[in-house]
Amino acid sequence: MASISASLFTSYAIVRPNSRKQSRRKPLRIPNPKPKFNTQSSRYKSPPEPAVLSAGEATTYSRLPPKEDFLVPSLNPSPEVKLSESAVPKIENQIGDLSSEEEEEEGVENGDLGLNEKFEIYEGDSGLEYDEEIDDDDGEEDEAEEKKVLGFTGRKSVYRYGNDGNYKGIVKEHGVSAKLYVFGEDDDDDGDDDDGGMPGFDSGQSVNVSDDEGDCVKEKGVPAVMRCFDRAKIYVKAGDGGNGVVAFRREKFVPLGGPSGGDGGRGGNVYVEVEGSMNSLLPFRNSMHFRAGRGAHGQGRMQGGAKGEDVVVKVAPGTVIREADKEEVLLELLWPGQRALLLPGGRGGRGNASFKSGANKVPRIAENGEVGPEMWLELELKLVADVGIVGAPNAGKSTLLSVISAAQPAIANYPFTTLLPNLGVVSFDYDSTIVVADLPGLLEGAHRGFGLGHEFLRHTERCSALVHVVDGSGPQPELEFDAVRLELELFNPELAEKPYIVAYNKMDLPEAYEKWSSFKEMLQARGIKPFCMSAVKREGTHEVICAAYELLRKSKREKQELEGLKNLENLNHVADMVHKQRSASINEFEIFHDSSSNTWRVIGSGLERFVQMTNWRYVDSDKRFQHVLEACGVNKSLMKLGIKEGHIVIVGEMEMVWHDSTHSSGPSTVKKESSESIKWAKWK
Ligand SMILES: Nc1nc2c(ncn2[C@@H]2O[C@H](COP(=O)(O)OP(=O)(O)OP(=O)(O)O)[C@@H](O)[C@H]2O)c(=O)[nH]1
Ligand SMILES: [Mg+2]
Question: Any idea where the Obg domain is (predicted)?
Answer without folding.
Answer: 226-384
